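Q: what does this look like with NDP bound?
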Amino acid sequence: MKKGIELKGNPLHLFKINFDMERIKTVIVGSGPAGYTAAIYAARADLKPVVYTGMEPGGQLTTTTEVDNFPGYPEGVDGPSMMVQLQQQAERFGTEVRIAHVEKVDLAKEKGGIHTLYIQGGDAVEAETIIISTGATAKYLGLPSEQKLRGGGVSACAVCDGFFYKGQDVAIVGGGDTAAEEATYLANICNKVTMLVRKGEMRASKAMQHRVTNTPNIDLRYFSEVDEVLGDAVVEGLRIRNNQNNTVEEISITGLFIAIGHKPNTDIFKGQLEMDEAGYLITKSKSTHTNLPGVFASGDVQDKEYRQAITAAGTGCMAALDAERYLQSLA
Ligand code: NDP
């Protein structure tokens, strides 16, 4: 952290004067489609944005192979290449990309206040505005065979990857709304969908459950867990265990979709920003404003509903426009 002195004369007015802490107009935390789109717009608006990439530069798309549903790529594009292009586009307008992780924030509560971000390694910077685009992380089962085959037939996004299994047999794990929605989505594309729910009931809404049970090519199995994903380089099957009677069965599939929930990456904002019970940041209606002035949120970190690269990019654009307008309102 940069040097400074603390003035403790009055205990109610404990504060620090920083002689040389860098002051940035707009800091963007996170480097997925939301973060880089925010950077493109902020840079073009002369906000001189700095992007802190986080632990996974490029975000979730870097773990996807082919992206076929982002407009403008008629032949599709692989996720890592798309993220490199988004970064280059942001840099073309003057965005500075720092491969570093923000580990703590101290957010100002009053309009015009200056926020402080503490960077892993000991540095700290000040920001007039912050755009939080830290995303959400899909949960996985944690089996070694599942981890080995991520990108080889194991996916956490049916809308992104389902198309590659057209006409084939696939399985999906989970019993929530996401799993139910993705099972019916896959059923439209694939030959057969085996849906594995670990309890004797689904957590999904009744309407979604009806959609699942009314879809003839979904084979819904309760009390069922994955023991192992079979296959060396690509998914070839699953070993399933019935946790009621401990019977084990192997099925042949080519794709396994994990839909057991996401965890928004918001730990460093706890206690400072308003979140819902699952930890997603709450933004004010039709905007990216959080509950604190000058702090905006875009992408999956504030969206558990759509979670698409294109919707994340859309809210990244909104966040940069909101930040620009906020700074103008201070002038
Ligand atoms: P949820 O947390 O609602 O559901 C997760 C599901 O995965 C549960 O069935 C859970 O089982 C199961 N699960 C968790 N861990 C494991 C594990 N290790 N092995 C097997 N199964 C596991 O997550 P969702 O992503 O489905 O939904 C998140 C939120 O988003 C919800 O509020 C949902 O309503 C909302 N949503 C709404 C949609 C809509 O309205 N169109 C669409 C998608 C999501 P168990 O019940 O046994 O814990």
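The CA atoms of residues 219 and 269 lie 41 Å apart. Residues 141, 173-179, 181, 198-199, 203, 260-261, 304 surround NDP (CB under 6 Å).
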